[in-house]
## 1
Amino acid sequence: MGIFSSLFGPKSKNPTSFEEEKRIALDGSDEERRGLAQSPSASREILCYMAVKDKNEDIRLLLAERLAKLLPDLCLDKKGKVYKYVVEALSVLALDEVIKIRVALSSSLKDYADAPPDVINKLARDIERQVSEPILRYCIALPDKELLEILTSAPQDWVVEAIANRPAVSQPVSGAVLQTGNLQAGQDLMQNAGAEISLEDLKLIVEKAKDYPEWQKPIAMRKNLPDEIVKELCGFVEESLKTLLLESTNLSDEAMMEVTSSVVRRVEFADRKKEKVQDRVFRFLKEGRLDDETIQDALSVRDNEFVMCALAALIGTTTQNIRDAIQLRSAKAVLAISWRAGLSMRTALRLEQELARIPYTDIIYPRGGTDYPLSQEDMEWQLNFMNIGKKHNV
């Protein structure tokens, strides 16, 4: 009888009634056992035993729903014996071979904030969508630790989308949703007012939105976007979305002027893409405008060939050398190139993300928010390794 074996020892409280309940639980007919399962006066310990051991799936189903409804009251004494019995019974039912029992349990517990963790975790990992999806999408008792483990286990698309639509999504979980590469889940996350998204993940969304137009409206409609995200979005979204962005944000006059100036620059930059890359780079260089601002404008409009040619001109090497170095997909190599070109660490970060496509987990971030984190010796070593010599005057 396992965990409930102690129930079948001697009882001092109302022994006649308890003995009769034991007889019914062990040897009673289906009708008798169903009546006992529905009886308001039945011993809860006996009900737990029947929920686990009864061979009739309809009776187990009835008991799964009844025991789940008992939890709120029993939670007042989580150290009590009855609470322990109920939780252990529900934990077994969460693995019941009959799917309708697991579905009923999932439906009963999905809205219960204090549901037993072991039971919830089992239901959340159930291979049947109708069992696990309600828990994944609605149950706030499911902790971030479990959500993160589920998201890193190559889950099916519907699993990721269910998590993205939870009433509240923390920043770590939002980041894990985005890392799955599920486009619909990413869109759902942006439209979810209860989802917290870190600044770094907002930047990742903006970068991906350049390739995925379906992401542009959801991110533009999101409330309280940081000024730098608004500025970046205005550089490439269509005019109607720019209007939405500017109307939904509280930019200062100075920030608004900067956004307007940025948009004008990038439109002008994009219009000139029909010219030869070398000619454009030479003109910017001659005008003294081959700088952080220009490189970032080029990145924003996806003119990677211009960026590589510009880096070559600033360093005094060939575009092919830069292209070969970028293809290494090394964060340290990108930082060394940006540093030698005289660009800021902020630009170097964008080169890592947008030009070299460095994996999210391998990106090197600024020290103190603005400084290059590598020593001069480290960066010189990287340049020598790539056969890119000292900067020449061009």
## 2
Amino acid sequence: MSDQTTMQNPAKQYSKAQGQGDGTLQPEPGSDTTLNPRPDHGESSYKGLGRLKGRKALITGGDSGIGAAVAIAYAREGADVAISYLPEEEEDAKKILKLIEEAGQKALALPGDIKNEKTCKEIVQKTVDTFGAIDILVNNAGKQEFVGELQDVTSEQFQHTFQTNVFAMFWITQAAVPHMPEGASIINTTSIQSYQPSPGLLDYASTKGAITSFTKSLAKMLADKGIRVNAVAPGPIWTPLQPSHGQPPEKLQQFGENTPLGRAGQPAEVAPSYVFLASQESSYITAEVIGVTGGHHLP
């Protein structure tokens, strides 16, 4: 794991091997517990400074990958954190919930499939019932499946990707906003794929384009309510999304090498952007997208 406070060459902060698999695939939805090599979520390195003291956060996909790193960071910054996840991701979720509690914060487990509108409304209501409000909403859960040929993209896959990545974001946000006070923040996870889509990720890239537009439009809609809406666009980050059929086996072995920094990123390197956008330090930033891409710049 890397020291996040010592100045160093970012290209060498993590070895290439820490962000590449051996080509072995996992069944969806993937697991951090069995991911090899293990990613860095900031378990040992993230040091909080009280930026989010007293806040109440809801993070979708908070059991693993970027969502897990954000959950750890938010807790160490002083926020109570609710994480939603698929029931089959319980093992990963338990580890993150334990880390939230070890940071001295309340942790709320919200298992369920957010492709279902009823589930989306329920996780919001359970968060409000437990915490009293939602000060930070992170729409992060995502589905990605690599398919090389257009004719092989099934209607079921296309629909499920949009339900998970776009419809759930809409349903959860719509349910959450009435419970969000002035000064609250919504942060969506888009992607470099919104700007530089790869062949084989047609449905995924399309949803990320939709998330980017949703973010910018919603920010203008909610500005008069004092709620800011922004997004983070990660590049190649080593998470279970990649080996659970998000990339073909041959691409996993070179994952992230085509970035200017020459390596894949770690979830711990993405989480600080979510902290910044949730904190009052970013009070004049809304309708914006922050790229965490290893050098593949956004337009």
## 3
Amino acid sequence: MKIVCRCEDITYEDVVEAIRKGYTDMESLKRKLNFGMGPCRGRICIPLIMRILAKELGKKIEEIEYPSERPPLTPLPIGIFAAGEDFEEEG
């Protein structure tokens, strides 16, 4: 078993299986497998999964589109995390 995403415990086999079930772009794969959501934010797994997808589809890596990144809905000041304060949404 080859792990491609340590944060979410996703294996090479998981990725190949999802591709063969029809998840043939990075966006749909990301939604199916939930990679890129852990502490590393995809720095390790996204390039690996892009290579697996290219290989499975018979494409060049340059033809695979990088998945979109979504910032948090409400940006928070870093001081909240450092101080351990509770966050209350305004409004």
